[in-house]
Amino acid sequence: SGGSVQAWSDYLSVRLHPKSVYVIRQYMHDGDCGCLEAFGQGESLLQDPSCIEELEDRLHFYVEECDYLQGFQVLCDLHNGFSGVGAKVTELLCDEYSGKGILTWGLTPVTSNGGDSQKNVYRVMNTALGIARLSSHSSLFCPLSLRGALGLKPQPPVTFPYINYDASLNYHSSAILAAALDALTAPYRLSSSQGSMMHLAETLTFGGRKVVAAWASLPFPALRGSSLPDTLRAYPQALPWKLLSPCGERKVGCCFAQSVVLRGIRKESHVSSCPGEPPTAPLHACESTEQTLQRYLHTLFPGAFSTSHVLEQPCHTLPPYPQFFSPLLTRQGFLLDKPPRYSSTAVESVPVLAALQSSPLLHTLLYGLYKDVQKLNTRRWASFFSAGVEQDDFQEALEELRTLSQCYEMGFEADESEDEADSD
Question: What's the predicted TM-score (pTM) here?
């Protein structure tokens, strides 16, 4: 049920090499005091020569085992002091391994703070500093969360039509994000892939747009036995996916570039359910599932640069994956026409559609976060700055956030933000 799960290690089924874990002993995990709660605390940890030496030793141990080092994936909490840890780690990687890909995922729990105003302010300040610093040292940065928004004002969490998850359980929300991440990263993890981490980053981050948004359809709503063209034709205006980057608004609009992955769909599923008949729509005329998805994406996003991958292997949801799926799903995660008379067995796998997008929606996220932090009276939060962040560095990071947000502006938004800048 997840009720007894307190930490990720409680349900970890993978054996970890001793060299792969570095424990920070100066701070307690979720204790009442001694928490790693401010960006400056995390940053100062990585300025300790003994800590740096230990990290580099562990890193070199693995790097030396690589036949072909593409780069690094960094998964980092944004809401607490690990934001500062991640910023220094990515800076270290950027300095030591220039030319290698650094793909960074900034994570935030759905619920936090418990009504504590200081924790809420710290969360927003940590997040603003984290996004500015992590994106500057990474090839690509993606905020990932089921929160409605990253700013001060709470928004309802993301909902999914065929998942009944408990937003208060990190065990549930992290499972959804993990399934999306598993699909999003497939293009450079496959042995058959032609692209690398750097190639993916370069296709999405042109024009200074280092931040991307994630979308996912979990499960991808395909009826049992239906073809891919028939499934996609049911959504002529927008894909049935949900935004996993907390932009505050969920509308699907245009995008500049995107990488889309569909997994769990058989290669022959592009064939119409009525063989022998002439194609009834352009999607039915496609010769493969890859071509079907590509044509559909070009129809929905005509001006965007789109790459797509279709994989037959689904996302496996065997234990310890939580069983929070709708009874409308088969064991393989496909939709039934009507609810079963008796409750079905556990869902063992699901098809997933996921995408990374460079999108104007990111202007809402970045500029909204910038405006929220600007409203704060930072003199009231001297304890945050006593942890090691200078006021000047903080303001510089905020300006970086504002500059970054401008990369995603469309015409009318640019005029609006210029007016706001004048009034400031």
Answer: 0.91
